[in-house]
Design goal:
This protein is α/β, with parallel strands linked by helices. The protein is 43% helix and 19% strand. Strands 3-2-1-4-8 form a 5-stranded mixed sheet, sandwiched between helices. It has a 5-stranded mixed sheet with strand order 11-10-9-12-13, with helices on both faces.
Length: 334
C-alpha cells in the first residue's frame, strides 16, 4: 500500500471540520506547496461545497496552476461514509449534512477524481506518510481535541472497518458502572466525555473553587477556562494544574492501554489540538499503560506525540487520495 509515488503531479487536499476548513496543494512527497484556511461555513451543504470549491480555485490561482496539472483531490471529513461510494450519510459536526453526494458535486465542479476519507483515517495516513508514524507498519493515531477519535494502520494497511468508522476510540467504556446514567457519556462516548477538551475543562472547573490561590482560579474569574490555560499553568509549575495533568495522563493512559492490549501496535501517536501538546505527559501515560496493558505489548510499544499536529488530516487526505487514485487507475497514467 505504501512507498510508491504514482505521479509527479501535485494533489489537492481538504481537511473539513466543524470549526475550520483547510485546503492545500501537496506534492507527491508530502510537501505542502500552498495552503489556505478559514472558519467552516455552517449554512448547509450547498454553501459548504461552494466554500470548498472557492478555496481550491483560489489556491490554484495563487499557485498559477491549472486543474489539468493536478492529479486528484482528497477530502478528510468527520462523517459516516458509504463504503463503496464515499456518499456522506451523516456528518454530525456539519449542519444539515445528511445524505450528501459530496464526491460527485466536487468532481463535477473540478473535473478531477475525488476521494473522501473519515477524518480519523486521514490523520493516521498523514502520520504514516510524513509524520511520527513514518517507517512503521503497525500504528495507531489517537486524536484528542474537542473529541477523541483516531485511525489504525495494521501490517501496512489502513483499517477502515465495516462502516468506515474503525478507530472511534472515544466510545471506550472506562467504567465499572454498567448502568451508569450519564447523558454526556452516552452521547459522546465515555472516554471522550472524560479526556477530550470539554470534559477535561469541566473536571478542572470542578477543582478550582477549592483552590483560590491557583492562577487558574484567577483566570476563571476573568474569562472562560480553556485547556490552553491549564497546560500553560502546568508548564509554569502550578501545583493544581500539575494535579489536573496527572489526572488527564491517567485517563489517556487507560484508553491507550486498551488499544495496546487489543492491537499490539509498534507505535501509538497522540494527535489533535490537545493530544499533540501532551509531550511532557508521555512518561506518566506510558507508566499507566505498563500498569494496565498486556505486559509484553506494553513494554514494546512506543508512545509519542504528533509531529504534524493539525496538519495530519490535510496531508493524510492527500496521501489517501494518491493511494486510491493509483489503485483504481491503469498503469498507463503513472
Amino acid at each position: 500500500m505504501k512507498a510508491m509515488n504514482v505521479s509527479t503531479k501535485p494533489i489537492l487536499a481538504v481537511d473539513l471540520g466543524g470549526t475550520k476548513v483547510a485546503a492545500a496543494i501537496v506534492n507527491p512527497d508530502g510537501q505542502v506547496l500552498a495552503r489556505k484556511q478559514e472558519p467552516t461555513c455552517q449554512d448547509g451543504p450547498k454553501d459548504g461545497i461552494a466554500q470548498i470549491t472557492r478555496l481550491l480555485h483560489e489556491l490554484l490561482q495563487e499557485g498559477k496552476l491549472q486543474l489539468a496539472e493536478i492529479l486528484c483531490l482528497g477530502v478528510g471529513i468527520p462523517a459516516v461514509l458509504e463504503p463503496e461510494t464515499d456518499f456522506v450519510l451523516w456528518a454530525p459536526n456539519l449542519k444539515g449534512w445528511r445524505e450528501i453526494a459530496l464526491r460527485p458535486a466536487l468532481e463535477k465542479e473540478l473535473g478531477l477524481p475525488v476521494f473522501l476519507e473519515y477524518d480519523g483515517h486521514a490523520a493516521v495516513l498523514g502520520e504514516w506518510w510524513v509524520g511520527s508514524g513514518r517507517g512503521f507498519q503497525s500504528l495507531v493515531d489517537v486524536i484528542v481535541g474537542t473529541g477523541i477519535g483516531g485511525g489504525m494502520v495494521l501490517e501496512g494497511q489502513l483499517v477502515r472497518g465495516r462502516d468506515r468508522l474503525a478507530g472511534a476510540a472515544g466510545w471506550f467504556a472506562l467504567t465499572t458502572e454498567a448502568g451508569r446514567q450519564d447523558s454526556r457519556a452516552h452521547a459522546l462516548g465515555f472516554w471522550e466525555s472524560l479526556a477530550a477538551g470539554p470534559g477535561f475543562v469541566r473536571y478542572a472547573q470542578s477543582q478550582i473553587s477549592s483552590h483560590p490561590g491557583s492562577p487558574l482560579w484567577q483566570i476563571s474569574q476573568a474569562e472562560p477556562l480553556t485547556t490552553v490555560h491549564i497546560f500553560q499553568a502546568a508548564r509554569q509549575g502550578d501545583p493544581l494544574a500539575a494535579q489536573m495533568m496527572d489526572q488527564l495522563a491517567g485517563w489517556l493512559g487507560l484508553g491507550i492501554a486498551n488499544i495496546v492490549s487489543l492491537i499490539n501496535p509498534q507505535i501509538v501517536i497522540l494527535g489533535g489540538g490537545l493530544g499533540s501538546q501532551c509531550d511532557f505527559l508521555l512518561p506518566r501515560i506510558h507508566q499507566v499503560v505498563e500498569q494496565w496493558a498486556q505486559p509484553v505489548s506494553a513494554r514494546s510499544v512506543k508512545i509519542t506525540s504528533s509531529q504534524l499536529g493539525g496538519e495530519a488530516g490535510l496531508l493524510g487526505a492527500a496521501y489517501g487520495a494518491q493511494i486510491r487514485w493509483h489503485e483504481q487507475d491503469s498503469p498507463t497514467r503513472l
